[in-house]
Amino acid sequence: MTPFLPHPSGSSHVLPLADDLPVMVWVTQADGACSYLNSRWYEYTGQQPQEALGTGWLRAVHSDDASQAGDVFFRANQAQQPFSLDYRLRAFDGTYRWMKDSGRPRFDDRGQFLGFVGSVVDIHELKIMQERLKMAVESTDLGTWDFDPRSGELIWSDRCKALFGLPADAAVDYSIFLQGIHPDDRASTDAVVQAVLQPGSLGYYDIEYRTVGITDGQLRWLRAKGQSFFDQDGQVNRFIGTVLDITSTKLANEILEQRVAQQTHQLQQINTELQRSNQNLQSFAYVASHDLQEPLRKIQAFGDILKGQYAAALGSGVDYLNRMQQAAGRMSVLIRDLLAFSRLSSTVAQPSLIALDDLLKSVLVDLELTITETGAQIRVHPLPTVMGDPTQLRQLFQNLLGNALKFRRPEVTPLIEITVSSVARQALPAEVKPLRASAGFHRIEVSDNGIGFDPKDAPRIFQVFQRLHGRSQYSGTGIGLAICESVVANHGGAITVHSRPGQGTAFQVYLPMD
């Protein structure tokens, strides 16, 4: 809704109020010509009134969007109907940002159409976020679905339809869904769906089933995950989720099982190699089918936050977000960590002088909520200034402190201490092998009083995807400490760890002084 409605005789009665508003406001006459723009418009675009009034405002709209923006507005003006559209608007410095322009018709006391009144709101960050979410979902090759059990309306993405052997323009409903499932899996799948739609259920849906393409007859294995939602009366009002084609994984597992079954004692060496290959495949399958799929259950919380804060700006995008919100969550955490790890180059391209005290303060601000919730005490000794990459060093401390907060002992107040000392090259412990020669090293130790771990696990703690504790107890991707090791290596240093179960953990970071 626009923030004000001009007096029927004109807009002069609301000009002072409009100029005080934090959004851009406009008024048009019955012929569609813009007769008023508040000061926010001129401040943002740098236009002058003689440039912007009439139809001149369109000259500030991105050339790729201007034609559509004009068409939408003038059609709405002719129909005297409200409208809303998104376009990129040029700022006074020549940059463009995404805006949402919404308007509604205004009438006098006799019902005579006077023109439109509207507002322009900056939605740039939200638009970028939407595009990133869309790219994340598309990159996973996921199909999405949205079911309203009350009306029976079922919405499938094009990918979802393809997995059931249907063209993109095919109409779907629940009976079509059941029809596409393999006869041997149909009853059990339907029973699971009906169970998660019942009042009192947790509403979480996670199942594998086969489909037989309705038009192409192709057999596929699918992994489906979803979540049902209930109203205040406990009645289900929505069921959304995703499907993923796991046919290749299923076939690979079947082939592998057949090969293993065919091995004999005469081929023990081959069998041993095959078992090793099987273990590698299982590790990959675990990551691919679990770590990259488990985050789907978390998308709802993220989606709810977006809807709560930006529902008005999203408009019809809320429906799209609802259908996507099973595809980000913890998956985005894993993808983020993987990207962070992969982006760590083997060197620091342009090192600069970094005050670690200031860098650590910003890390502690990021972790403030967790520190407050856990009641953790952080003791920080004065830190040195080093040459390095601020982004990488930030990742280092973020992961070390994050681990210390995560792996705390129950009922024990977390205590984390960061100390610094100088170590000459010849005095380095035998296990410390920095990648760059230096006369001396800063030894930065991050220690905690957490749960610790068995010292025999220390050699593998910095390996990618290594987890020393169960996923049910502690969340994470197993990438954080691998990132730490890469960051330290990129800076020519070394990192070691000492720990014992129940006695806490201490990480020692050695960074060259020169």
From TrEMBL:
Question: Locate the PAC domain: which residues?
Answer: 83-135, 205-258
Top class in the EC scheme: transferase
Q: Which PROSITE patterns match?
A: HIS_KIN, PAC, PAS
Q: Which SUPFAM superfamilies match?
A: ATPase domain of HSP90 chaperone/DNA topoisomerase II/histidine kinase, Homodimeric domain of signal transducing histidine kinase, PYP-like sensor domain (PAS domain)
Keyword terms of this UniProt record: Coiled coil, Kinase, Phosphoprotein, Transferase
Keyword hit for Transferase: yes
* PAS domain span: 10-80, 129-200
| Segments forming a coiled coil | 253-280
GO terms of molecular function: phosphorelay sensor kinase activity
* Record domain Histidine kinase: where: 287-514
Pfam families xrefs: HATPase_c, HisKA, PAS_3
Q: Which domain of life is it from?
A: Bacteria
What reaction gets catalysed by this protein? ATP + protein L-histidine = ADP + protein N-phospho-L-histidine
User: Which Gene3D superfamilies does the record associate with it?
Assistant: 1.10.287.130, 2.10.70.100, Histidine kinase-like ATPase, C-terminal domain, PAS domain
Which Enzyme Commission numbers does its entry carry?
2.7.13.3
Alphabetized InterPro entries for the sequence: HATPase_C_sf (IPR036890), HATPase_dom (IPR003594), His_kinase_dom (IPR005467), HisK_dim/P_dom (IPR003661), HisK_dim/P_sf (IPR036097), PAC (IPR001610), PAS (IPR000014), PAS-assoc_C (IPR000700)
Protein name, UniProt field: histidine kinase
To which species is this protein native?
Answer: Larkinella arboricola
